[in-house]
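Hi, here's the filled form for the chain we discussed.

Project: internal
Contact: R.S.
Residues: 311
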Amino acid sequence: MTTVSSAPGPSQEETAPPRVLGVGFPYISVLSRDLYRSGLIDFVEITPETLCRARRDGGMDLIPERLEQARAICGEYPIVIHGVDLSIGSAREWNGGYLDMLDRFQGSWPFLWHSEHLSYQTVPGDDGLPTSIGTPLPLPGTAETVQLVSARAAAIGRRYGVPFLLENPAHYLTGLSYEAEISDEIGLMAAITDRGRCGHLLDLHNLYCNAVNLGFDAFSAIERTRLDRVIEIHVAGGRWEDGFLMDAHDGLVPSPVWELLAFTLPRCPKIAGVVFELLDFYAPKVGADAIAEELRRVRDLWRSCCVPQTE
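And the returned structure, exactly as it came back:
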């Protein structure tokens, strides 16, 4: 079982900011490798769970054939990791099997930074092992949450020696309560990244979904966000379902998210990359030409905001 220190984050050294990369795109095995040779991509974001098989004991085994295929397609690029199964906010314990797998991944294919969602999605099962609840859920806005997650974030920073980022999640629960000193989800992220000495992966489509579904102004939210903690930005598409705007990663970036990117990008002093996010099984439907056009648009904004380019 993986354990973490209870020491607060600020006592730890903060990892150095990563080098500026530029425009990123996920590794999607069903896409032609020509897209990864197009000159539109500066780095690749990999979700390692897609290269694994799950074990009955909760562990994960990297599948050598999938790993080698990924390296053959995008091994010439810098890579970053974007995980989904850590469940950093689970009260009892996080998913130690995910970190054990990530140890092995880093040993074979080092990454420049890695990220996870500020949420929880596992609870203890009858056998004592973490059991998925099927969807990530938001965390309570309490000092106890800040202490728990920031200690874990600091421990991860020590474990890998590269920046660790937390992503602001989309969620569909109204009326969440927050302690006065935290105020809201923006205050919760700020408190955790500050105490845990970690970075922020600012997902603009998640923010847009929450603004639409929960009724707040996304631009005002950006102005209150600790943009000095933002290392990476995600843009993506979604869809309406049962009266909610869903963060589905199933299509093109909507106009309001492009507007948010243009507004936010020049305000992030430590930004290292912007990723157009798309899930594997929607990529063939979207098509390589449309994906390439989205990447060109990200690159145009990147250049117009005078962010240093990768040589």
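Let me know if anything looks off before we file it.
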